[in-house]
Design goal:
The protein is mostly helical. The protein contains eight helices and three strands; from the N terminus they run H-H-H-H-H-H-H-H-E-E-E. A three-stranded antiparallel beta sheet has the order 2-1-3, with helices on one face. The chain is globular and about 55 Å long.
Length: about 260
């Protein structure tokens, strides 16, 4: 597999410099979110796995685009597949399964998918494995957000739309990049795919945190970091005033 960026255009040491650098966006998001508010990390340590998935995927993608070797491709695509399984675990078990059963099932599925990927060495195996889980997470989280979510439903639903709108735009640009490259021999839209897919997935994890908070009966607030990046704050009840607003909060919030 190869991409439209001209190989070794900027330096003889990196095959696709622009794609390599843009891959670090996901890793940067993971590092940024590795220090969540203490209340969040204490209640749901499983979300730490999500941020680690961002870091591993970002670094693996950088290695892949920097070398364009089969080993680099595996370091990019296998973490993407396994990262999706981490998000499924954070989403929670469907009806009839407990947390332990879900964890065991995902481990078995993860091992089977990695083995199939290594044995067949086919991009189609990766695309199918990755795509099916994305569709499941989209549908299942949508059901939780729009049908089962409680008092935090408005905020969670807004984040859900933002997450899949951002990711969907990135996917459209990924397709256009392949089309333009095949027809015109030019195109650098893969850079935007890295940024938008990472950003959409980041917001999706906040959807999962919002669902966990709602299930625990906690209040959540939408906030903006650096006037650009949306994220969620989980506020203990004792820090809320009578109107449901956080006392002494410095972030811009919407309810």
């Amino acid at each position: 597999i190869d991409f439209c960026e001209e190989n070794y255009h900027f330096t003889p040491y990196v095959v696709e410099l622009l794609n390599s650098v843009s891959s670090l966006a996901a890793a940067a998001m993971g590092f940024w979110c590795r220090t969540p508010p203490p209340s969040t990390s204490a209640r749901w340590p499983r979300f730490g796995l999500s941020w680690m998935a961002f870091i591993v995927v970002g670094l693996g993608s950088m290695i892949f685009h920097g070398t364009m070797k089969r080993t680099g491709q595996a370091l990019d695509e296998i973490p993407m597949v396994l990262g999706n399984l981490v998000f499924v675990y954070c989403l929670g078990p469907p009806l009839g399964l407990g947390d332990r059963e879900l964890a065991l099932l995902l481990v078995v599925v993860g091992v089977a998918l990695v083995m199939a990927y290594l044995v067949y060495e086919s991009y189609a195996v990766f695309f199918f494995s990755y795509g099916v889980v994305v569709v499941y997470m989209t549908v299942q989280s949508g059901i939780y957000c729009f049908r089962l979510c409680g008092k935090n439903g408005v905020v969670v639903q807004r984040f859900w739309r933002c997450a899949f709108g951002t990711y969907g735009l990135g996917f459209i640009l990924w397709i256009l990049d392949h089309v333009l490259c095949a027809k015109l021999g030019v195109g650098h839209l893969h850079i935007l795919w890295h940024i938008l897919a990472g950003g959409g997935t980041l917001i999706y994890v906040f959807v999962l945190i919002g669902l966990a908070a709602d299930k625990a009966g906690l209040e959540i607030h939408a906030a903006i970091h650096c006037y650009l990046i949306p994220y969620l704050r989980v506020t203990p009840r004792e820090k809320l005033n009578g109107n449901g607003a956080e006392v002494n909060g410095n972030d811009k919030k919407t309810h």
